Amino acid sequence: MDVVIRLFRGLRVWCAVAALSVVALTSATPPVKAAEAMSTALSGNGVGVARGNTAPMPRQMWVWHPGNADELVGLARDYSVTRLLIWVSPGFATDRAGLKKLTVLRSAATRGGISLDALGGDPSWVDHPRQARLWAAEVGRTGLFDRVHLDVEPHGRADWATRQRTLATGLLQVLVEAGRAGMPVDADIPYWYYKVKAPEGGTLDAAIMRRTASVTVMAYRNSAAGVLAVAAPELDHAAAMGRVAWIGINTGSSGGDPASTTYLGQSSAAIMEDLAQMDAAGRSWLSFGGMALHEAGSLANLADA
């Protein structure tokens, strides 16, 4: 399978780059025509999920602080977001005021045709995987969310270098425990997990995909070509395994990483243009679920031009 993946990877990346080149060459044409030109460039590669289909792709957005429901739904619609990932901590359901706000948000989102997923997780959960099941069960009891979306990221821990196998084992168990609550489980992964060995053999990204319905690849770069280049290996693995992979971009602080890992400082118009390019190019992967935007707070503060 590895040989097939490498062959497909080369073909798909070439197709994506070719598609982006088409957009560059047609930059003087209206945006719709440019998107059509990109779709045409991808339509003959034999591996696209929607060859010739120009229907909008789904999009999701991380939301750490929901704030006003109507404003959040308005922001989501501005960016064609169809799924909101709403951060909720363990014990959130005991906060009556907070639960009331989430109920209002659910109603507003439903009216806007937007689904709500519960976002949660912490690196410490890999030491206590049962916490994931308790949290997911709490999410399910509220009836406010459609899925659970885990953001655990044990690679951010200081002991990742010395305890990688143990922490990876804990991460996989977190996913299993969350699934026992009965809701679909999705997870965030960095674009380089295909380089990490899984405790059970193979790669960590593939082990995660076996335990989830979809993954969101944090492919943090500040250009369409850069994002697609780093996301490609994970999209290939997901396609080979029959899983869905979303491509995530960062519009907020780089958190100490290079400036090239975030769209921060670019206008909303420039980001929307890149999103359209990545939507079109992403169709060359059977696994592509859509784009994911990090995050609502930073997107709300972007310049309009």
How would you sum up this structure, described in words?
The protein is an alpha/beta fold. It has one domain (58-300): Glycosidases (TIM Barrel, Alpha-Beta Barrel), CATH 3.20.20.80. The chain has helices spanning 2-25, 31-42, 69-78, 96-111, 130-142, 164-179, 204-210, 224-241, 268-282, 296-300; strands at residues 59-63, 83-87, 115-120, 147-150, 185-190, 214-218, 244-250, 288-294. It has an eight-stranded parallel β-barrel with strand order 1-2-3-4-5-6-7-8, surrounded by six helices. Helix 1 packs across helix 9 and helix 2 runs parallel beside helix 9. The longest helix has 24 residues, at 2-25.
Concise summary:
This protein has 305 residues and is an alpha/beta fold.
Can you tag this structure with a few keywords?
disordered N terminus, globular, TIM Barrel, alpha/beta, 305 residues, 8 strands
Question: Can you lay out the helices and strands and say which pair or pack?
Answer:
Layout: H1 2-25, H2 31-42, E1 59-63, H3 69-78, E2 83-87, H4 96-111, E3 115-120, H5 130-142, E4 147-150, H6 164-179, E5 185-190, H7 204-210, E6 214-218, H8 224-241, E7 244-250, H9 268-282, E8 288-294, H10 296-300
Parallel strand pairs: 1-2, 1-8, 2-3, 3-4, 4-5, 5-6, 6-7, 7-8
Helix pairs in contact: 1-2, 1-8, 1-9, 2-9, 3-4, 5-6, 7-8, 8-9
